[in-house]
Amino acid sequence: MTLHHFHLKGEWQGGRNSEGYIDAGNLQTKISIPPEMDGPGIGTNPDEMLLGAAATCYIISLAAMLERSHIPVADIGITSEGMVDVTEGIFTYEKIIHRPHITLKKETTEKQTRLTNKLIEKAEKTCMISRAIEGNVQIEIAPVVRVEE
């Protein structure tokens, strides 16, 4: 077994509506509670970071699977949406919707297009962040796949 270690150093100034700072190597940013949750909205927040972790893990997993399957990809993009429920003052991250948009090159075969659609679903199940939040946050995939003209 190979164990990879990731480290983060954080600072926080004051109470609930203050701000802080995190440093996790390439991720260095101010943090606070978002304005949607009556916070100051300085820097990023846990909700955006969870959405960002889930989206980047998914798109990287998908890109790697498409590459290993020799799918002729022209372009891959993603938009993702996170939904947080607030009931009686309790915040619960309910759902993430990933909307990958994939453009395949002209020479793509029908078989490769079908495989692309299978890999879109499989990538979510292989992503380590998806597996980490499984059972707590619902993940939905709403892809758009097209072939260049």
Gist of the model:
The chain is an alpha/beta fold and 149 residues long.
Question: Can you walk through the features of this model?
Answer:
- This protein has 2 domains: 1-44, Single Sheet (N-terminal domain of TfIIb), CATH 2.20.25; 46-147, K homology (KH) domain (GMP Synthetase, Chain A, domain 3, 2-Layer Sandwich).
- With 149 residues, the chain is of the alpha/beta class.
- The strands form 2 sheets. Strands 4, 5, 6 and 7 form a 4-stranded mixed sheet that branches. A 3-stranded antiparallel sheet has the order 1-2-3, with no helix packed on it.
- It has helices at 46-68, 110-126, 128-133; strands spanning 9-13, 19-24, 27-31, 73-87, 90-104, 138-141, 144-147.
- 31% of the residues lie in helices and 36% in strands.
- The termini are far apart.
Main pleated-sheet profile: 4 strands, mixed
Domain count: the total is 2
- How much beta, percentage-wise? 35-45%
The overall strand count is: 7
Uncertain ranges: none
**Molecular shape:** elongated
Helix content: 25-40%
CATH class (first level) name of the largest domain = Alpha Beta
CATH architecture of the largest domain: 2-Layer Sandwich
Order of helices and strands: EEEHEEHHEE
From the 3D structure, determine the CATH topology of the largest domain: GMP Synthetase, Chain A, domain 3
* CATH homologous superfamily (4th level) name of the largest domain: K homology (KH) domain
What is the rounded Rg?
A: 18 Å
Figure out the total of helices. 3
Termini, distance in Å?
46 Å
Mean pLDDT, all residues: 96
